[in-house]
Specification:
Blueprint lengths: L9 H7 L4 H6 L12 H7 L4 H9 L13 H4 L4 H34 L5 H36 L12 H24 L11 H43 L1
Helix pairs in contact: 6-7, 6-9, 7-8, 8-9
Length: about 240
């Protein structure tokens, strides 16, 4: 895709060109939970200039084949089971590690710098709220939803599937994604888009770099689930039910 079409949804833009994800994040344009909005509408809601935004995105170089930003060639064409495996091995592994790794750094920075920067107490509290939400969320996906999706691969008729259909657990998980998105947005606001103050130490920098990476990875993680995995799985289950009726 050579041109940026402002009528495309944010999710479609990232699916077609994953390298745009970082730049949409920087512009405050939510392509995961808010991914079904057209670029033109999201820009208007965000108080941005459409021409400037399109020009900014247009200037982003296309990802070279084989680069990390070109992985749409992989995950955008994966089957359901392969996509689930990719999510677990890539984003779930990263997220578990990041949540554990960032926590003590956030506590240390809040303790050392909290008197001069009182917002750090809320940064720590918001991060821990996010962690408390996401860790059980991962377990639900791995123990409830993902096994159900894997069963679709081998099921020959809908009678082979559990009685509760996929839209129900997916609705719950999507709501939890929305909550995670709200908490990440709060962290971005509290930290002035993860900008380290002039008196920030190396640990301060480590914390804000970690939070920025956490936001970027989680946004892409949720995008792949909300805008690729979930609708494809629901469609696959419905096709199976239609064949069995």
């Amino acid at each position: 895709m050579d041109l940026i079409d402002s009528d495309l949804t944010l999710a479609s833009l990232v699916t077609l060109r994953p390298e745009l994800a970082t730049h949409l994040n920087a512009l405050g344009l939510d392509f995961c939970c808010g991914g079904q909005r057209r670029l033109v509408d999201a820009v208007d809601e965000g108080g941005l200039d459409l021409a400037e935004t399109v020009a900014t995105l247009q200037a982003v170089p296309m990802a070279a084949a084989g680069s990390s930003d070109s992985d749409a060639d992989n995950w955008n064409t994966l089957g359901l089971v392969e996509l689930v495996d990719h999510l677990e091995s890539t984003h779930h592994v990263y997220l578990r590690d990041a949540l554990v790794r960032i926590d003590p750094v956030a506590e240390k920075v809040a303790g050392v710098h909290g008197e001069r920067h009182p917002e750090l107490a809320e940064v720590l509290g918001t991060f821990r709220e996010l962690r408390a939400d996401l860790e059980p969320h991962l377990i639900k996906e791995e123990q409830v939803l993902f096994p159900r999706i894997r069963e679709l691969e081998v099921a020959t008729e809908s009678a082979n599937l559990p009685g509760d259909r996929l839209p129900n657990p997916i609705a719950v998980l999507s709501t939890e994604h929305d909550r995670a998105g709200e908490l990440l947005a709060r962290l971005r606001s509290l930290t002035d888009a993860f900008t380290v103050p002039d008196d920030g130490c190396a640990s301060y920098q480590l914390l804000y770099t970690g939070l920025a990476e956490l936001e970027a990875d989680t946004h892409l993680h949720v995008h792949k689930e909300n805008n690729l995995l979930f609708p494809r799985a629901i469609e696959a289950e419905q096709r199976l039910a239609d064949r069995s009726s």
